[in-house]
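Why do we care about 3D structure at all? Because function follows from shape, and shape follows, mostly, from sequence. That is the central idea of this module. The next example makes it concrete: a single protein chain, its amino acid sequence, and then its structure expressed as tokens.
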Amino acid sequence: MSNELEILSNDLEIYLRGFQDALGKKDVAEAIRYLNEMKKEVEENLEFLTHVYAPEKPLESDSR
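And the structure:
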């Protein structure tokens, strides 16, 4: 796995654990903050990662 993907994966795992902890505490506002951080992290990295690792390659689900 590329270094960029590994870093993104680690970041998302941290946010996911925070999200799950917040849900366990029934802190919906905190859970939403974690979801927003995950969304921001994906949006910031997705265009770059797609361009570098999967240029113009359709998703397998799109080939049906």
